[in-house]
Request: fold
Amino acid sequence: MKIAVDAMGGDNAPQATVRGAVDAVRQYGIDVILVGRREVIEKELKEYGASDLNIEIVHCEEVVAMDEHPASAVRKKRDSSIVVATKLVKERKADAVVSAGSTGAQMAAALFYLGRISGVLRPATAIPMPTIDGVSVLLDSGANVDSEPENLIQSAAMGAIYAEAVLGIKNPKVGLLNIGEEETKGNKLAVETYQLLKNSTLNFIGNVEGKDLNFGKADVIVCDGFTGNVVLKTCEGLASAMFTLIKKGIQSSLISKIGGLLVLPSLRGLKKRLDYSEYGGVPLLGVDGISMICHGRSDARAICNAVKAGERAARQGIVEAIAKELGKQQ
Amino acid sequence: MKIAVDAMGGDNAPQATVRGAVDAVRQYGIDVILVGRREVIEKELKEYGASDLNIEIVHCEEVVAMDEHPASAVRKKRDSSIVVATKLVKERKADAVVSAGSTGAQMAAALFYLGRISGVLRPATAIPMPTIDGVSVLLDSGANVDSEPENLIQSAAMGAIYAEAVLGIKNPKVGLLNIGEEETKGNKLAVETYQLLKNSTLNFIGNVEGKDLNFGKADVIVCDGFTGNVVLKTCEGLASAMFTLIKKGIQSSLISKIGGLLVLPSLRGLKKRLDYSEYGGVPLLGVDGISMICHGRSDARAICNAVKAGERAARQGIVEAIAKELGKQQ
Reply:
């Protein structure tokens, strides 16, 4: 297995990307290919004391910037790191691509160069969501903003395959994100999707509400990409607001400052649990190859975890599993 | 001003409802009418040492249960506490109704007996959302699950009136809940609504994302009722999951247990800040009268706060303000 890492993409590139890739080599023995400007990558490898690892570098000149129009940037910049890294997957020279660059450009490159798996109407992004005792997957988290019931049931099937193969959840429970428990609840999309899920071969457990998301009621939660993206970012914001308020509260008196020092180690563990980068990037499911999308703010640990998740997805053959499952539905 | 309280509605009725109403009389000098079974209410008033307050009781025999079909229960049970309390508003014998009973039944009663304000396409529920330094209002939070751009712009206008009149926010900033900052972002509904808001007389500040919700970027945030309800319940669930994990973390060692005791008072303050009941119920905006919806689990404090918010909404004339504002748009 070889994982292509876009060395130039993300707010903390090339430091975080190169170091994350190096950590994946050192910690997990995964083969990586670093894609980007050779001199930049070599300098970073040297600074990290990793020149002796002989990591393969595929040189390219260009980078897609965060503010460029994704599709046209991908069309024009054929020699950009995200395009070159994605093409390595297409040409079977790499088994997955990992990037923390422009998400739109990464999706455009995946759609353009890898294409959809036959039978897949629309790819979907599957976000790992931390729960009080594990992790669930929420999808779609933004690839499709206007979804149809057929998109949601395909998302559910792809999410279940990913949860089983990569997160190791046996026969994952699938839930529909909705605003009530009864099957008649929700908007038109939810009501129609409920019936499709009920009649599918998936392990469908019914509706789950926002309040259930972090309690692991379902392993795979499906919704349209607009709602999913809002949910994801709401969790990010609320967790951050709560940590701000906790810090402010703790600093409000000498006694609670002392108490704060004593509870700090346990609160750090909590922050880590709620940190999405802990779970190793977001797969774009439904394209003919593995493309792991990382947060623009990814640090080396997030990149390393994404490389590991990408390698596991490739090793478990999720593309083939999705092709088989969704091919049946045609 | 007189506020009708549905004494029979909610998980903790009649104790929480009667005590909350009594607290509003005692703390704020607000006139209340308790609606429900006279003997039950009188017993509760006696137990709470409030018989001498001479609170008006309007007797009725029936109660709408949480599991009844809202519209048909409201049609059939004409002598139920929610119907009788709502009719007091209709007949101008009360200035607002407060209930913690079935939300569906309360909305059905409001639509049936109060009716929509002329010019309002659909009523919307406005949820107060705690932010790190204040409170915003999110609407719609579930009254309409399939919304059109016209519904969202009306929600925005009604939310702005409520935020200014009841929450005391001058010239409130209105934001559109979306999945990116640019005006071309989002689903069809969001893209179309953006243009309507941009060309309105509201203080529109553009898109806000989920991560901005708890940071007070906007005072009034609009979205469709499905997304709003999911966001609301997601926040509820995540906050609860975080408190569970904090507690677990603190109890994991003797040292952090000691620290926990020292920080507890400041964390209690945080829990209170994030507690939706603190903000006094959710107004159903757009109906011709004031109907304050409380959480089914409301305690006396939540009921008392809702009575206070209902009284303030009536005193500030929000129904008249909405009628004036939305009448102009016709």
